[in-house]
């Protein structure tokens, strides 16, 4: 087994047994909204599982809760449960969007970069809900993030993760949705440079969404590709 939190394999069965936890979790701190425009989110004082079953083929909802709920203290926590060949697709049209072929690149280019824009690299992250999982390979996690930016501005973000798990409790595939406008505004306001500066050494072509010019295949430039 790859995860210390797995309890055991059922003998003679392909099901995975995860540590039993109550069907509700009551230790969540109330969310304190920093939004100028919204009242405090209608966030429950305790987390209720749609399916509290822990005798599961894949991962149970209580196990998913324990795995993802620590992201506020450790941004890397999510990727501790990533398969080495995990593929991540960040949906939308913004600097984080794209298809990542390994978890390390996805983490550095998104969560790590975003975390560096937040004061003291601290963020309050909570789960709104968990759907699916258990005997289904796919699960959906709804997150709410709350922090203060390096410039002292209140910051909020809601994110949706759609995850495919294997029978060892590792994530094999992720599609995630974020607020593109919030991401772009946060990077623009809090990064000293926006993807590049005169201190960056460029060794790869970065032509933008339009791709390389047609002349690239007719000159020595084409031989370098």
Explain this structure to me?
By secondary structure, the chain is an alpha+beta fold. It has a single domain, classed as Nuclear Transport Factor 2, Chain: A (Roll). 16% of the residues lie in helices and 28% in strands. It is built from four helices and eleven strands, in the order E-E-E-E-E-H-E-E-H-E-E-E-E-H-H. The strands form three sheets. A six-stranded mixed sheet has the order 7-6-11-10-9-8. It has a three-stranded antiparallel sheet with strand order 1-2-5, with no helix packed on it. The longest helix is centred in the middle third of the chain and has 13 residues, at 103-115.
Structure summary:
It is built from 4 helices and 11 strands; from the N terminus they run E-E-E-E-E-H-E-E-H-E-E-E-E-H-H. It is α+β, with helices and mostly antiparallel strands and 225 residues long. Keywords: Glycoprotein, Isomerase, Signal.
């Amino acid at each position: 087994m790859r995860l210390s939190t797995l309890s055991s394999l059922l003998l003679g069965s392909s099901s995975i047994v995860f540590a039993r936890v109550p069907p509700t979790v009551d230790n969540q701190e109330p969310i304190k909204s920093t939004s100028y425009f919204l009242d405090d989110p209608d966030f429950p004082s305790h987390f209720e599982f749609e399916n509290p079953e822990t005798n599961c083929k894949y991962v149970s909802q209580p196990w998913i809760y324990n795995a993802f709920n620590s992201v506020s203290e450790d941004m890397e926590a999510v990727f501790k449960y990533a398969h080495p060949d995990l593929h991540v697709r960040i949906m939308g049209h913004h600097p984080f969007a794209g298809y990542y072929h390994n978890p390390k690149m996805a983490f550095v280019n998104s969560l790590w970069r975003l975390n560096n824009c937040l004061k003291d690299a601290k963020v309050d992250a909570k789960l709104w809900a968990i759907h699916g999982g258990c005997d289904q390979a796919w699960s959906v996690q709804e997150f709410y993030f709350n922090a203060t930016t390096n410039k002292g501005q209140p910051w909020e973000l809601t994110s949706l993760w759609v995850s495919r798990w294997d029978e060892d409790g590792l994530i094999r595939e992720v599609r995630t949705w974020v607020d593109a406008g919030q991401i772009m505004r946060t990077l623009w306001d809090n990064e000293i440079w926006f993807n590049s500066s005169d201190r960056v050494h460029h060794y790869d072509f970065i032509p933008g969404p339009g791709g390389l010019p047609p002349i690239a295949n007719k000159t020595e430039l084409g031989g370098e590709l």
